[in-house]
Design goal:
Number of strands: 13
Structural class: alpha/beta
Shape: globular
Bound molecules: nicotinamide-adenine-dinucleotide
Helix content: 40-55%
Largest sheet: 7 strands, parallel
Strand order of the largest sheet: 3-2-1-4-5-6-11
CATH topology of the domain at 4-181 and 222-245 and 285-299: Rossmann fold
Number of helices: 12
CATH class of the domain at 4-181 and 222-245 and 285-299: Alpha Beta
Oligomer: single chain
């Protein structure tokens, strides 16, 4: 029998790739998204148009903050498990409106966990973030004590992780928490640096860089993230946390800008701005647990992934260059 997965945030950047990965593996996917305007909704519609062409995909326009909506979807579609990617996801934006981060990330997650319990569905994946490691020295591993979130976003994701542990303890749920490290690839989020830098450099606009560009990230390609997420769903047992990061040497913002200059054949003109207090200077992942337990390994290096991302931007530039940042 075809297994049915409920995936929240299906029109999001990572969600859309994860739906495709699941369908390629033979799952039937029910996707829910509220299509909010945190960033330009044309990007979400673009991803949804691609998903809607797939058999074995059903879209539900709805909000996980509404318990009655979540309950309705479970009643109608009877999923075997849930991958919860819907969230408010911006570190900096979370300092401006922390309430929406708590209501979407914490209450939304709680609504899903509660409904799963009501329907006796016990397989769950929760998206979390490298931001929970704020204040620690990398490479980060899952055993580290994470108690110093730098932003309401990171605090909300730590809250989600803790709720997951409670559900595992109370009701014997099998839960994988996946901590993603700066994800990039085609159709990325326009609030993240890679989209912005490609956009500014390609269009001859000045790059707004916070800090001196030496800050670095363990950039991870979106198809690798989708694969790791689905493996963590299939292999989830007990309660486990997995870092999903490239595990390469992290790249600095300056290195990223140089690669985009090479790809576009254009020079970057840079305005240097102060670093927001919510930002961390660097991230790097120890991914040995995901390799050993899930058999996962990232396949796409940063230069190749950035080339794919730049190509997507050029292919779609008719409308993408008008996206509001
Ligand atoms: N992109 C990254 O680098 C990164 C890094 C760490 C963690 N994450 C996590 O991965 C997940 C996906 O992130 P993304 O980058 O694809 O972000 P995204 O914003 O592109 O995707 C999230 C999707 O969830 C939807 N959504 C938000 N609130 C909702 C609600 N109340 N009900 C239904 N749908 C709702 C949004 O409309 C959006 O389409 C998030 O949980 C995020 O916190 C992402």
């Amino acid at each position: 029998m075809v297994k049915r997965v409920l995936l929240t945030g299906c029109c999001g950047f990572i969600g859309s790739f994860t739906v495709q990965n699941l369908i390629d593996k033979g799952y039937f996917v029910v996707g829910i998204d509220n299509m909010n305007d945190y960033y330009d909704v044309r990007l979400k519609k673009h991803r949804l148009d691609i998903l809607k062409k797939m058999e074995n995909f059903k879209f539900y326009h709805g909000d996980i903050e509404r318990l009655d909506t979540v309950n309705h979807i479970f009643n109608e579609f009877k999923p075997d498990g849930v991958i919860n990617l819907a969230a408010r996801a911006g570190v900096r934006a979370s300092t401006e409106n922390p309430w929406i981060y708590l209501s979407t990330n914490i209450v939304g997650t709680l609504n899903i966990l509660k409904t799963m319990k009501d329907f006796n569905v016990k397989r769950f994946v929760q998206a979390s973030t490298s931001s929970v490691y704020a204040g620690l020295k990398g490479p980060y591993n899952e055993e580290m004590k994470v108690d110093t979130p730098f932003s309401p976003y990171a605090a909300s994701k730590k809250g989600c992780e803790d709720l997951c542990y409670s559900w595992h303890h109370l009701y014997d749920f099998d839960i994988s928490v996946v901590r993603y490290f700066t994800v990039y690839g085609p159709a990325p989020r326009p609030d993240m640096s890679i989209f912005r830098f490609i956009h500014w450099i390609s269009n001859g606009q000045r790059v707004q860089l916070t800090g001196d560009g030496t800050q670095s990230r363990d950039f991870t390609y979106v198809e690798d993230i989708a694969e790791g997420t689905v493996l963590s769903y299939e292999k989830s047992k007990g309660f486990e946390i997995f870092n999903l990061g490239a595990g390469e040497n992290p790249y600095s913002m300056n290195q990223m800008i140089s690669i985009i200059e090479e790809l576009s054949g254009k020079k970057a003109f840079i305005d240097y701005l102060p670093v927001p207090r919510a930002d961390v200077p660097s991230t790097s992942a120890d991914i040995s647990k995901a390799k050993n337990v899930l058999g996962w390994k990232p396949e796409t290096g940063f230069k190749e992934g950035l080339k794919n991302t730049y190509k997507w931007y050029c292919d779609e530039s008719d409308w993408v260059r008008n996206i509001q940042l």
